[in-house]
Amino acid sequence: MLTLAHCQPFSHLHPPLSVKRTRTRTRASMDPTVSKPAVTGFPYLPPSHRDLMVDLLSSIEARLGPTLLPSRVPPDVLYFENQQGTSQGALDIRSGAQDSSVDFILQSWLHCKVPTGDLNITTVFAFLNASTDAPHLLMEFIQGSPTSLILFMDLLPRKDLVLHPEYLDEFYNTTNLDKSSHCS
Questions:
Q1: What CATH number did the domain enclosing 115 receive?
Q2: Which residues form a coiled coil (predicted)?
């Protein structure tokens, strides 16, 4: 069973004196009649953030869906929450089919009530298999307040960039991603 410590991502920092740190067990109902948000539901996000994530996952599904296997993640991981209901999350992993260049795609969301408000983190990882040298993709949206949204995107290299400068050029320097085709 997963254990959350109030879902504080900076647990190594000293908490404010008024916050009592406790460990709680997560719970996940195995009752199929209990309604739980799907990993693609994003129930705690503001509409614009939710729409962005739904569009992103819809694009991934449209492009890669036929090459992805059905999820085999157990129900208590697809959705989980702590006993106080202050932290909820969902996680799904889909493996690529044998003929796919995708090894697996992980998508998740995490919602935590913290002393300063709510913290929402949505994540998409796309890991490719050995049939390609292309970098893995990481996209993460972190919302710490209604006026704060951090977008973190990274192409995770599959080779040491110092030892393989040709890899650096091929996948990072000469992609022309910084040039827009519709700007004059």
A1: 3.40.1500.20
A2: none
